[in-house]
Amino acid sequence: MKKHKNIPIFIPHSGCPNQCVFCNQKTISASSGYTLHSVKQQIENALSTILPDCRTEIAFFGGSFTGIPRDEMTALLAIAKQYKDDGKVYGIRLSTRPDYISKEILSILACYGVTDIELGVQSLSDKVLTASKRGHTAAQTASACRLIKEQGSFTLVGQMMLGLPFSERKDELATAKGLFDLGVDAIRIYPTVVLRDTPLEKELTCQNYSPLPLEQAVEITADILEMAYQRGVACLRAGLCENETLHSEGGIVQGPFHPAFGELAISEVFYRRMANQMEKFSCLHKNIHIIIPIGALSKAIGQKRCNYHRLMERFSCQKIRFTESADLTGIEVCIQEDSKLASQIT
Q1: Cα–Cα separations (whole angstroms), residue 158 to 116, 186, 228
Q2: Is the pLDDT confidence value at 289 over 90?
Q3: Three-state DSSP state, 298
Q4: What are the Cα distances from residue 327, in Å, to 32, 48, 135, 294, 332?
């Protein structure tokens, strides 16, 4: 399978009708602007470093792409389409708001070869959307998803956030389930962090808002990942991308940021699966052999071997040994005792 590589082109705040309480796109993207020339140069520079066996996409992130002036949008798309037509990239990806999706817009995107649309859903709770000053409703999100799926030529990605103002765990799980029911092909999960120079920072200062603790954000993300695996929906990312700006004086004020947030969440999923099966098959005081998919060893053992230590303590095991197997995929786990297969999660 070819490796996937995005060439990210950030369009900070372009097309965005308002400022959400959590948003400071210049901090998130480490970018303050662009020109058509700079976009071409950025693509050329990126292509010069990408191996030919990669599945490469040009990705317009950072703003509400379909809300920018039409001539500006089509000019950017025309640049990307030329690289796609020349076979230098496989696809074109963009992110936008649910209220900037229409049949007309989708027709334009299709003409320019767009392959993936990422919707900034954030929540399917109108209470949370209002408190976050999103400027759109859950019904508009549902309508946008249906239009995209009915058009038939796009991959649909739902971006959701955890820990927004007035959001509870049940709201976040309901958002994930709602996105799966609406037919998203993939999701991105972002725990809310407080960035400097945002309305949310003022709420934090006034003690009107508290971000999720890291452990709780990881647990909720693990809940959603388990739902995604069950529904066959890919998670493209969990947690913010790390860049120098996030750690500068203009970056994160507070919140559940971790440079390996996604791995923490997947590690929690593995722990739950291993512990549940060891509980089911009475693995107390025994030698245990845990088999996981190839490439999953660090996720299963956990950072600083935390899962290993948790399992050893919980089950008072004499020994736990981990090995990888090509017979398993995803988050499948096999538990063996005395070299005999005790269980298999599928």
Answers
A1: 11, 6, 12
A2: yes
A3: helix
A4: 47, 37, 48, 9, 9
**Which residue type, as a one-letter code, is found at position 291?**
I
Return the number of other C-beta atoms located less than 10 Å from residue 227's C-beta. Answer: 16
Contact 84, 129 (CB under 8 A): no
| Residues 286 and 319: beta-carbon distance below 8 Å | no
> Contact, 161 vs 22, CB < 8 A?
yes
Query: How many CB atoms are located within 10 Å of the residue 174 CB?
Result: 15
Q: Are 197 and 139 in contact (CB under 8 A)?
A: no
The pLDDT mean for the chain works out to: 90
Which tens digit of pLDDT belongs to each residue from 22-60? 887 554 444 446 788 999 999 999 999 988 888 999 999
**pLDDT given for residue 3 in this prediction:** 81
Statement: the pTM of the whole predicted model exceeds 0.85: yes
- In angstroms, rounded to a whole number, what is the distance separating the alpha carbons of residues 43 and 89? 10
Q: In what order do the strands lie in the sheet with 186-191?
A: 4-10, 55-61, 91-96, 116-122, 155-162, 186-191, 234-238
Alpha helices in 232-305 (DSSP H): 261-280, 297-301
* Rounded CA separation 186/166 (Å): 25
- The DSSP secondary structure of 218-268, one letter per residue, reads HHHHHHHHHHHHHHT-EEEEESPPP-GGGGSTTSEEES---TTHHHHHHHH
> Which of 56-60, 168-172, 248-252 is least confident?
248-252
Provide the 8-state DSSP code for 216: H
